[in-house]
Amino acid sequence: MSIVTGTGNMTPESLAEGKTDRLWKPWEASDKLLPFLGVWESGVLNGTFRGLPVAQGMILEVYNDHPENPKINKPTVGMGHVVLDKDHLKVGDKVSVQKAMEFLKSDIKIVEDQVNKKIKVPLYQYEYDALVSIGINAGAYGGLTEISEIVNKGIYKDIPKIIKTYHAKVEGKLKRRTAEAKLFGEGIYDTDH
Prior knowledge:
Blueprint: E1 2-7, E2 15-20, H1 33-42, E3 47-49, E4 52-55, E5 58-64, E6 75-78, E7 81-82, H2 97-118, H3 125-138, H4 142-151, H5 159-165, H6 168-171, H7 174-186
Helix pairs in contact: 1-3, 2-3, 3-4, 3-7, 5-7
């Protein structure tokens, strides 16, 4: 159990102290998060997605993530890793599971650093995992800024309903946001879609 001390709402000098089962940082993504991300990013843990090979939730061939929309279309591989110039890959190139895992670890580290930097309230592990999933999908920098401000208000019961609509309409991600809301609110790693 953590003891949390912070500034109260009444005056800047006031302090509030309380006990919570939520954890304090630094947080790290749990082992449960990887299969959750794998299914949401790649459709399946093992098999094929859009005719491309998938292993451990990672697409092993570089593909265009939004071929129907050239404005947001980006070469992608692994578990949603946007291919960078330094990766020296192009659409159609194949990577090993090990290389895809390296990309994933690097991408998760960036998101974890941002969540640990931006969140100022304690979290359950599953709440943290939900925020990492949002960051992986919506972007570690801009994608986490607005949701972090909401989480930092500490009104945990309201956060799932906010997550459900967060970037959902614009990006067509309603089912994923609903699953992330369920994860944040109930600790259920649901990959049905």
